[in-house]
Amino acid sequence: MNRAHRGPPRQFLGLPAPAKINRFLHVLGRRADGYHEIQSVFVPIDLCDLVDLGARDDERIVRGGDLTGPADDDLAVRAAYALQAAARALPAAAGRPLGADLRVEKHIPVGAGLGGGSSDAATTLLGLNRLWDLNLPRAALLALARGLGADVPFFLGRGAAFVEGVGERCTPLALPYAALVVVFPQVHVSTAEIFADPKLTRDTKRTTIAGFSAALPPAPGADSPASGVVGNALFGANDLEVVVRARYPAVDAAVRLLARYGPARMTGSGSGVFLELPDLARAQRCLGELRPALPAGWSAWAASTLEVLPLADWLAD
Fold first, then answer.
1. Full-model pTM
2. Active site positions, annotated
């Protein structure tokens, strides 16, 4: 942060926008509005995009850095415009320019089910709320987030959450630490395409937070499974995984490859696949053994779950 004068900051550099994994993802049914009712547990991890924000003396939102499509379609840009429109109604913002230079350095792969675009949008909301000295509370930003995308509200919370509805209802969870190996098979999966597939199961029985929590070990130890692993299996299922693996052989291959080392699962609508392990040292050893077997072009990381989202304290409840 650069404070050249008293008052609001003029620049934030390197704001983290972390990825997430889905410990499970159940599709309960299709709603009257065409969206699907889901239940899931989202957990943030320390694989992060980086967001730079600079105040402008005009009303423009100028997008730089890594782009994966037209700037106007970028979720972080849409978040900036949504906050700008909301701020114009605030007496505190009257007469002040609310423009920004917005740069994103991408480390989270696109179309991997890791929530990178949604996280970029949430970090943009958090950063501009401070950069523009708006002081909007969490509830106000959550209202904007719900109009941007199903995963964006989660990234305005504090950490892991039990997620319901289309993704907008997030109940905080306290979960033990886990290390991860994450594999990206260089396939970009369309979420809309998977949810529209007639082969998708849409009638999974509703679970509860208590049911999820009761199935987990109290804490991972040196010889115990990771926090999302029950016995020799992960809790529940990712209902989208069967459809994605049938449509994308590379995702099927990634699950099979990781499954040599333990229970592996696709995250979100894919194509990222993860394996949970009790500690980072074990994850790094697994990654070292795995790398020679990765097909050309695939990417893989060792990562850790985050107890608290990096900017969780930037909002008042």
1. 0.92
2. 20, 151
